[in-house]
């Protein structure tokens, strides 16, 4: 940019976002989100933690190979094996980055690492140098920088820059900081580190006190030129700084910020819906920028003002972030080419004709039940198709439920388990409870239901219901999703999807200290 500095957007939805309980994504789901982020024109996509599991390695490698317009990043602890694995995963990237980290706060160094400060600096420098064997784009993060001593933070920052770190990230790992305080840390680093002009200062803020976006903006005002964030603020514990809020705050308040992003903000809502659908984490209606009520006006005074002049109560245009009227795009008479073309416009392509045919068959089935098919329906349909293909040992064959006033609800169903059909029936406090009990009587998963959430995908009484089910077993948390115009069937699909994940038994490693 000619007059304004370029504010780099580093999206970690695929890495830190995935660390939300139950938010694990498959390789194909990560690719769908990565392509959406590329269309959004995100500068850096952190695709995962390659050492964490073979699946994570494969996902990072796939994203690195297919994404061309955004830089692809892999996370690594300050350990040789982590860095080597990240280097391997990023080998085919058009533009790759290795992001290595080590903790720098007194409590982390003493209690977790059991290392002396000098040892931490030595290991950080060695990690940066090793990463430079694979790429000249190396980011170093001082984990828990928000609770680190400023003198030590200055020393380690100077040392890693000298070793070749092109970006130095200052995370508020536990969401402890306050905007004025955090901004002062960035200002101090810019003033006190002699070689600071040889690197980009970055921040990565968590939302434990609801201040992730505020802290990030305070850092930008004090000279940070990269912000690490996620779509919908997804992430560990209370989440990360929300990309959509950061980007629109900077874009809207150009009178205060001497920088701007290169993002195509009209893609924000599409990205938000995609991430929500894949992870099962619904967006709250009053969520800034992407919530259903973000541009709704209930008050008569507000409505009158907006009708007279939009800027009386709206500081952004809904169109600028991708909000449009729900638009019917296809119907029951639409053909495969029209279906394929519209999904391509939404950034969804199929790897094979078989995948296209499976999705098209579901579309035709939906079109017979629901007259108006919206973009949101199409996105959910593809997600639901992919859910059915991943690790599917159990399939819902049929379901019949009965619920009437004064009678105990009951459900009868047929499941296909490893290809063999099994029948069951059960009663419950409601039709959904009865269906879940019937499924459990067959599968005996032993999992505990931790969350049940229903969300209407579009408006109208014929809208598809999108259900998220969260199960926990032995400390492992999984999310299951299902969609259907019949909410009980959607619920059963979601429960079966979650049970498939429980029964599959794979568990993504989560190395201690990955929360940067």
UniProtKB/TrEMBL annotation:
Residues forming the Pyruvate carboxyltransferase domain are 7-269
Any keyword rRNA-binding?
no
Pfam family of the protein (one): HCS_D2
Under CDD domains, the record lists: DRE_TIM_IPMS
Q: Where does Mn(2+) bind?
A: 16, 204, 206, 240
The protein's required cofactor(s) are namely: Mn(2+)
Extract the ranges annotated as region (Regulatory domain).
Answer: 395-516
**Tagged with keyword Amino-acid biosynthesis:** yes
Q: Under which pathway is this protein filed?
A: Amino-acid biosynthesis; L-leucine biosynthesis; L-leucine from 3-methyl-2-oxobutanoate: step 1/4
* Documented EC number(s): 2.3.3.13
Q: Which chemical reaction does it catalyze?
A: 3-methyl-2-oxobutanoate + acetyl-CoA + H2O = (2S)-2-isopropylmalate + CoA + H(+)
A molecular function annotated in GO for this UniProt entry is: 2-isopropylmalate synthase activity
SUPFAM superfamilies membership = 2-isopropylmalate synthase LeuA, allosteric (dimerisation) domain, Aldolase
Quaternary structure, per UniProt, is: Homodimer.
HAMAP family, alphabetically? LeuA_type1
| Role played | Catalyzes the condensation of the acetyl group of acetyl-CoA with 3-methyl-2-oxobutanoate (2-ketoisovalerate) to form 3-carboxy-3-hydroxy-4-methylpentanoate (2-isopropylmalate).
Q: Which family does it belong to?
A: Belongs to the alpha-IPM synthase/homocitrate synthase family. LeuA type 1 subfamily.
| Protein name per its UniProtKB record | 2-isopropylmalate synthase
What organism is this sequence from? Marichromatium bheemlicum
Q: Which gene encodes it?
A: leuA
